[in-house]
Write a structure and sequence with these properties.
This protein is mostly helical. Helix content is 75%, strand content 0%. Helix 2 (18-25) packs across helix 3 (29-36), helix 2 packs across helix 4 and helix 6 (66-112) packs antiparallel against helix 7. It is rod-shaped.
């Protein structure tokens, strides 16, 4: 018996209609209907609000089977890998643009500068420096700092303290 069927059984055992359950819990009727049809993933708020009215913990009824749990883990891992891949691709695109634009700016400076005074700082140094700092930060985010690692460590700390 899936979650929706269990929810419907508990609701009918308590003698409530979907409309009454919706009104008492403050959860939209459409959400109650979708939960009973097993459509989508219900929010924790909805499950808690309905569970209070029914006098049961719906999160226990919603415990996924092994196949669903494995799929959730794989989807989570894929999302993390995609986030890492996106940040690395973004860095590589920026590095490519940098290596084309900055030499071009130096050529423009060389060709247009009348005064090649050794004591003056050439203007292309400023975009090169600013963009370079930005690239360094992008590199650190893409290759050194793991995506989600800080959040994962904090989550693990909170979980171990309970």
């Amino acid at each position: 018996m899936n979650f929706g069927e269990q929810l419907k059984e508990v609701r009918t055992t308590k003698g409530l209609t979907q409309i009454e359950l919706s009104e008492k819990s403050g959860v939209a009727l459409r959400t109650v209907q979708r939960m009973e049809r097993n459509e989508g993933k219900p929010s924790l708020y909805s499950m808690n609000a309905i569970g209070e009215v029914l006098g049961t913990n719906l999160t226990l009824l919603y415990a996924p089977d092994l196949e669903t749990e494995t799929r959730n883990i794989m989807e989570s891992t894929d999302q993390q890998l995609w986030a890492i891949a996106r940040s690395r691709a973004k860095f590589k695109r920026s590095l490519g643009s940098y290596s084309i634009v900055i030499p071009f700016l130096w050529v423009i400076w060389f060709l247009t500068s009348q005064d090649k005074d050794i004591n003056r700082i050439p203007w292309p140094i400023w975009p090169m420096l600013g963009w370079g700092i930005g690239l360094a930060i992008q590199y650190l985010k893409a290759y050194v700092i793991e995506v989600g690692s800080l959040e994962q460590r904090e989550y693990d700390k909170l979980k171990n303290n309970q």
